[in-house]
Write a structure and sequence with these properties.
There is one protein chain. The protein is α+β, with helices and mostly antiparallel strands. It folds into two domains: 2-75; 80-247, no CATH class. 38% of the residues lie in helices and 27% in strands. The chain has helices spanning 2-7, 9-30, 41-75, 99-109, 118-123, 173-185; strands at 80-83, 86-88, 94-97, 129-131, 133-137, 143-150, 155-162, 167-170, 196-203, 208-215, 221-228, 244-247. The chain has a five-stranded mixed sheet with strand order 1-5-8-3-12, with no helix packed on it. Strands 7-6-9-10-11 form a five-stranded antiparallel sheet, with no helix packed on it. A hairpin with a 4-residue loop joins strand 6 and strand 7 (155-162). Helix 2 runs antiparallel to helix 3 and helix 4 crosses helix 6. The longest helix has 35 residues, at 41-75. The chain is elongated, with a radius of gyration of 29 Å.
Length: 248
C-alpha cells in the first residue's frame, strides 16, 4: 500500500481536491434546480453518498490494476547468479568480449605474432580457467539490454540478451588488456578485479532494474542494492554492443 501511495500520490491528491471542490461546485450548479429538489437533508446526503461511492469504486479498480501490474513485474524478475573469481569456463557457454577493442590493441602495438584469433585461441584451450565475470539466470526469466559496469570508471559491456538457463562470461576491457599483456610477454598481471559491479537490464515485463554488487577479497559477488523502474546510465562515448563472442 505504501508503494501504491508513493507511485500514485498525484492521482490521489487530485481526487481529494475534486471531492472537496465538488461540494461548492455542485451546490452552485444545482441551485437552479432547487425548486425541484426536496429541501430535506436526505437528497443532499444521497447525492454526495453516490459521488463518494463512485470515487471509492474508481480507487479500488485503480489499486487492483496497480497490484496486478506489480505481480506481473515480480513474476518476471530474474534471479541472477554472479561470479567474478578464477573459475572454469563451462563448455558450450559464450564468452563475450570487445573485439574492436582487442583489434585496436593489436594495431596500436604492431605485434605481428598476435592476430585477431589470439583471444579465441586463448579460450579454446581444453579445461580453460580464467578470472572473469560469469552471469547465470537461475529462475527461467530472460533479460534484455544488459549493461554491465566494472568498477567506478567507464568500463562498460552491453549484452543484447541473456536467455533463461544461459550462462555467459564477460571479458572487461581491463581483462582483455591483461590477456594481451600475458600473450605478448608471458607474464601474468591480473590484478584489476573491480570492487563493485553494477547491472542495468530490462525484464520481459518491460521493467528496468538496477543491481549493485560488491566484490570481496576472494572475488565473491554480493548483492547490496536493487532498484526498480530506473533509467539506464549514459554510456561513455565510443561504447558499443558487446556482440562478439566465443563459443567455449
Amino acid at each position: 500500500m505504501r508503494k501504491y501511495v508513493k507511485n500514485n500520490w498525484k492521482i490521489l491528491l487530485l481526487l481529494i481536491v475534486l471531492i472537496i471542490l465538488s461540494g461548492p461546485f455542485f451546490s452552485v450548479l444545482i441551485s437552479s434546480f432547487s425548486a425541484y429538489l426536496n429541501g430535506d437533508l436526505g437528497d443532499w446526503l444521497s447525492f454526495y453518498g453516490a459521488i463518494t461511492g463512485l470515487v471509492i469504486s474508481l480507487l479500488i479498480i485503480h489499486l487492483q490494476l496497480f497490484l496486478d501490474r506489480e505481480r506481473e513485474k515480480a513474476a518476471n524478475r530474474p534471479v541472477l547468479f554472479l561470479e567474478n573469481d578464477y573459475q572454469a569456463i563451462k563448455s558450450g557457454s559464450q564468452v563475450y568480449y570487445h573485439d574492436k577493442y582487442w583489434f585496436g590493441l593489436i594495431q596500436k602495438n604492431k605485434i605481428k605474432t598476435l592476430t585477431n584469433q589470439s583471444l579465441k585461441n586463448f579460450y579454446a584451450q581444453e579445461d580453460k580457467r580464467d578470472k572473469t565475470l560469469s552471469l547465470e539466470i537461475v529462475n527461467n526469466q530472460p533479460i534484455f539490454n544488459l549493461h554491465i559496469q566494472f568498477g567506478d570508471g567507464e568500463s562498460f559491456a552491453v549484452i543484447p540478451k541473456l536467455s533463461e538457463g544461459q550462462k555467459i562470461y564477460v571479458i572487461s576491457k581491463e581483462h582483455q588488456e591483461a590477456i594481451f599483456f600475458y600473450l605478448r610477454t608471458n607474464k601474468p598481471d591480473f590484478n584489476h578485479v573491480p570492487k563493485r559491479i553494477r547491472l542495468h537490464f530490462t525484464t520481459l515485463a518491460g521493467e528496468t532494474i538496477y543491481q549493485e554488487y560488491t566484490v570481496d577479497a576472494k572475488q565473491y559477488c554480493k548483492l547490496i542494492k536493487e532498484k526498480y523502474g530506473v533509467n539506464y546510465p549514459k554510456l561513455p562515448e565510443g561504447s558499443h554492443l558487446c556482440d562478439y563472442f566465443i563459443k567455449a
